[in-house]
Amino acid sequence: MNPLRMMVLSLTGACNLACRYCYASEQDARTMSWDTARRAVDLAAEGGGPFILQFSGGEPLLALPLLVQIADYIRGNRIRARMDIQTNGTLISDEAADVLCDAGIGVGVSLDGRPDVHDALRRFPDGRGTSSAVITGIQRLTARGKEIGLTTVVTAENVAALPGVIEMAYYLGNVRIVGFDLLRGQGRGVSVRPAREEDVALAMERVFALCRKLERLTGRHIVIAQAEQASCLAQRTDGGFSHCHAMSGAGVHVDALGRIYACSSFVGDERFLLGDVAHGIDARRQEELAHEMQRTMAFCCTCTDFLRCGGACYARMTGEHAICTAECALKRAAIKEATSN
């Protein structure tokens, strides 16, 4: 088995929201057992090197006691894991905020724009918008001096309003980085229209212009994840798909039942199943899948932007050699911004 650099741990398939585009809406709603979680962490630690352990779901804060148990286990055994969580933000209570801060867990919160835009996409099951609950949760972290990241899912409905995410980031006061995640066409995502290439290009131009303006006015710098990635990739010495842990065979997703998949986008798809925490990872299958994804995306290597882009996302392919052109527009805007700085 290749040493793992990243493991996404789905603590539960359950979620307290009913977001219109959720790609994970069809996952098993059960919660991971402690034994499964421990086996998964031990598996990732076998390589001996540092790795990222990202808590995911569903909504991982629904399994807060399990999260605490895992964090205590990692610290108690001095496992070289950087712990992160991606949360919808609505369950960041005082207790949860204390846990995240005390355990040194990096926090990413999903926010799709200003309240009216966010509420149209991310709702409670009864139809109510979630922005108020998300902002309240973030403010609990702000009060504790905890910096966070924001993740925005980009669709046709909110692409024109992406600068509003930057406005919210400066308003909240504790946002260090903002990342834009294009719609995934799985789960409920198949019923939401993806953003067009030209709309993404224009939106990102406005995003970067607003970032520069607000930085001059406030003296605060907020990183755009895609621009940071472009800067990092410019320093690399290899020419492969090193930005994607799945494509390099160094990342996995473990679902709540302990099944191991090559990528979070393909949970439940037997073609991407690599094993389970009880029996380990099928190293041959892991290598075969990594090579298969790289072969499928090999046409990216002929692009003049490849070295700073790292290639398109395999999960967003819509057919043979049919890349998501909106992703290309997003990354080209980020490369332009990174090059100009």
TrEMBL record:
- Which UniProt key words apply to this protein? Iron, Iron-sulfur, Metal-binding, S-adenosyl-L-methionine
- Family, per entry: Belongs to the radical SAM superfamily. Anaerobic sulfatase-maturating enzyme family.
This protein's name: Radical SAM protein
Q: What NCBIfam families does the record tag this protein with?
A: rSAM_more_4Fe4S
Lineage, uppermost ranks: Bacteria, Bacillati, Bacillota, Negativicutes, Selenomonadales
In this chain the Radical SAM core domain maps to 1-220
Which InterPro entries does this entry report, sorted A to Z? Answer: 4Fe4S-binding_SPASM_dom (IPR023885), Aldolase_TIM (IPR013785), rSAM (IPR007197), rSAM_sf (IPR058240), Sulphatase_maturase_rSAM (IPR023867)
Q: Which cofactor does it need?
A: [4Fe-4S] cluster
Q: Which GO terms describe its molecular function?
A: iron-sulfur cluster binding; metal ion binding; oxidoreductase activity
